[in-house]
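Hi there, hope your week has been kind to you so far. For a while now I've been wondering how a particular protein folds. I'm sending you its amino acid sequence along with the backbone structure tokens. Could you read through the record and tell me how the tokens relate to the sequence? Take your time with it, there's no hurry, and the full record follows here.
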Amino acid sequence: MSVARNINIEELIKAETALELQLINEPEFRKGLIWGTPRFGHPEGTIVLHINEVLNNIDKLPIDEHQRAILRLVAISHDTFKNKEDRNTPRNWNLHHSILARDFMAKYSTDPVLLQTIEYHDEPFYCWLHVHKGEHELAERRLNRLLNNITDFQLLYYFFVCDTLTGDKILAPLLWLEKKLELESYRPYFL
């Protein structure tokens, strides 16, 4: 996948903390931010353009400043290592972009909520994908594992809403999750 040029990362992310500024100035991180071309789910192309959309969605949520700060770090890092993801078959899930991002962020923070939200940010989608394929038992096991492994599911849900409501992503995984867990929908904040 090609890498976009002439993208103003600083303008798109608008770092609010010293850590955010440090991250977007890391060469390895910057390389991941400008990676990508338009594709299904991400018509915007580059990771940083997607992050900009997620950050705009975070600003619409009725959350406190602590939650917002964590969600911003999740947004800035969650897809940044897609350029390094192993997409061979069978997949090496230890080289999934979420694991790479979590490991990178562990150099800067030990906050379990931050690191878990980064690591599991795509899990609700993968659970739904099992349902979509008719693998209901697998979906149930995977969802239960997620619920047992995450400290702050509500924050993960907030992020999943903000991430799903970008580009041309399908809403089915989000709608399934809300129905399955009887979650109060935060989608109205984006209308």
